[in-house]
Amino acid sequence: MSIRVLVVDDQSMVRAGFRMLLGGEDDIEVVADASNGLEAVAKAARYLPTVVLMDIRMPQLDGLEATRRILAADPAARILILTTFDLDEYIYEGLRAGASGFVLKDDPPEQLIAAIRTVAAGDALLSPAVTKRVIKQFARVARPEPPKGLAELTGHEREILRLIANGLSNAEIGAELYIGETTVKTHVTHILQKLDLRDRVQAVVLAYQTGLLERD
Fold first, then answer.
1. Tens of pLDDT, residues 29-81
2. What pTM was computed for the model?
3. Whole domain around residue 191: which residue ranges?
4. Count of domains forming the chain
5. Fewer Cβ atoms within 10 A, N terminus or C terminus of the chain?
6. Cα(157)–Cα(55) distance, rounded to whole angstroms?
7. Cα 24 from Cα 39, distance rounded (Å)
């Protein structure tokens, strides 16, 4: 089954570029594109894409609100935010809105394609080029009370959460802790359930917000 992608950007050349890039992949199909947030919400409902590539700054409705509306209608939708370094302040809000991650518009093509496949598989992704800088910067803005579930994590689960926050994949965590990848996935599922989080992106945000990395 191919990965159905909706490309959302207010620049026609950008949309055409993504169509051309993704069109060469056997397992990816661009089912539609949209030039603004309102159009994105409507087309997401119509075409039910697996992954939405979402620009932030757009007319009529920005990418943040479009993300919220798409996920409210379809919680299973996976949204990758497209951004550039000068839009850092929007990334954090995008993650809080429920996006599954973000990629830079100038990331290498193979990295963007890999990101789409990663998110389509049900995982979450943060571009390593900006993850720590962005999350650390904006997590400092407000330090909420740690959720009760944080105290319920076992020492092993806290260590896995720390490794997730440092950007390690399940395979890398398994290698670090000498456990199987399936076991890591089980632990991650338990962590997300205990903390009432949607995915590992929200786990990264929480780890920085609560100062877990600084304490550990």
1. 999 999 999 999 999 999 999 999 999 888 889 999 999 999 999 988 899 98
2. 0.73
3. 144-215
4. 2
5. N
6. 34
7. 25
148 shares its domain with 132? no
Burial class for 21, CB neighbours closer than 10 Å (0-12, 13-18, 19+): middle
Which range (59-63, 83-87, 183-187) has the least confidence? Answer: 83-87
User: Interior CA angle at 9 toward 111 and 121, to 5°?
Assistant: 40
Let me know the angle formed at the C-alpha of 103 by 133 and 128, rounded to the nearest 5 degrees: 45
Q: Which of 137, 153, 181 is the last residue of a domain?
A: 137
Q: Which of 104, 137, 170 is the last residue of a domain?
A: 137
* 121-172 tens-digit pLDDT: 877 666 555 566 656 665 566 556 777 788 889 989 999 998 888 777 788 8
